[in-house]
Amino acid sequence: MPRGRLMALDYGRRRIGVAVTDPTRTIAAPHGVVERSNRRAPGTAIPGALTELVAEMDPSAILVGIPFSMDGTAGEMAEEARAFARALEEATGVRTIEWDERLSTARAEREILSMDLPRGRRRRKGRTDEMAAALMLSAYLRSTPAGAGVPRGS
Q1: Distance, CA of 51 to CA of 57 (rounded, Å)
Q2: Which of 77, 16, 24, 98 has the alpha carbon at shortest distance from 51?
Q3: Residue 113 near residue 122, CB atoms below 8 Å
């Protein structure tokens, strides 16, 4: 069975939510956010903090959430996230996998509410983004036998 961490990113123009697995790909956990200093930068602009985090965590693959429309079409943000995934793979040399992240933010918000955290901790900037990344990564792990297969992105 392949080993090595997997990383998931919930792409956004303001911040990018990050989640990682343990090296055995058993558990997915939120791992913070990377703030984007320039929201007007093209989607292909990879924040230096993200490339540093990828180097530090050394994932064998990176899941990038693609926000498809409810009808399955790829709108502007989906195309931007796809361009980001390609640029990230080129910048880091780590294979990226596109993952349908429809409704992940809504699920993340429900999950955070169910944790019964004090209001201030629930509203911490980026909490929803990192939770959305963790939920995507958990879904990915459930979709592959023991998280073993890392299929090619589309």
Answers
A1: 10
A2: 16
A3: yes
136: CB partners within 8 A, 6+ apart: 8, 10, 19, 63, 65, 99, 101, 104
CA-CA distances (angstroms) from residue 16 to 9, 30, 139, 149?
6, 12, 18, 25
Residue type, 54: V
Count of CB atoms within 10 A of residue 29's CB? 13
| 151 secondary structure, DSSP code | P
110-150 confidence digits (pLDDT tens): 665 565 555 555 455 567 788 889 999 988 998 876 544 44
pTM (2 d.p.): 0.78
- Here the tokens at position 24 are 């055995």
Tokens, residue 79: 């195309």
Question: How many other CB atoms sit within 10 Å of the CB of residue 8?
Answer: 33
| Cα of 14 vs its chain's centroid, Å | 14
| CA contacts within 13 A on the Cβ side of 58 | 4
